[in-house]
Amino acid sequence: MQRTILLAKIHNCTLTGANINYVGSISIDEVLLDKAGILPYEQVQVVNNANGQRFITYTIPAPANSGVIELNGAAARLGVTGDRLIIMTYGQFTPEELKDYSPTVVIVDEKNRPLEVRHYDDLLSRV
Questions:
Q1: Catalytic: which of 22, 58, 90, 120?
Q2: For residue 46, which of 21, 23, 71, 22 has the smallest C-alpha distance?
Q3: Is 63 within 8 Å of 30 (Cβ atoms)?
Q4: What does the pLDDT look like over 67-115, one tens digit per residue?
Q5: For residues 124 and 41, which has the higher predicted lDDT (pLDDT)?
Q6: 24 is in an annotated binding site
Q7: What chemistry does it catalyse, as a reaction equation (predicted)?
Q8: Is 58 a catalytic residue?
Q9: How far apart are the C-alpha atoms of 118 and 103, rounded to whole Å?
Q10: pLDDT band for position 13 (50/70/90)?
Q11: pLDDT at residue 127 above 50?
């Protein structure tokens, strides 16, 4: 049996823009993607702390060190500049794979600069 488990998240980032005319997705500063281990075009769940919206889209890398977190396409209607977001990705794991696994969490400041990378080492010890 496989279980769906958090792979990584970018915690409490700030939405920097919304572009309704773009094809779709969420643009994320490439440095944040790298630190979280989230791939370009990978499916992510986005939670908007300001309005409670939760939605699924995919990532597109924004220029490194730009601080860009931008909703594109239809998702642009789900947030406004300044909203605080949590961006998460998940993976399928077997019980054996979970024994040495720990999700990655990237903590950012108000300008989406990475402050800290954490690993939830004890999160799955209760599974």
A1: 58
A2: 71
A3: yes
A4: 999 999 999 999 999 999 999 999 999 999 988 889 999 999 999 999 9
A5: 41
A6: no
A7: L-aspartate + H(+) = beta-alanine + CO2
A8: yes
A9: 8
A10: very high
A11: no
Instruction: Return the residue matching tokens 């300008």.
Output: 111
Separation between Cα atoms, residue 87 and residue 70, nearest integer Å: 12
Please write the tens of the pLDDT for every residue from 46-62. Answer: 999 999 999 999 999 99
| 57 annotated ligand binder | yes
- State the DSSP code for 83: -
Check: CB of residue 88 under 8 Å from CB of residue 9. Answer: yes
9: β partners:
88, 105
Tokens 């594109």 label which residue? 72
What's the CA gap between 48 and 95, in Å, rounded? 31
Tokens matching residue 117 = 């990378």
Question: Residue 18 annotated as binding?
Answer: no
In this structure, how many other beta carbons lie within 10 angstroms of the beta carbon of residue 76? 19
125 classed as catalytic: no
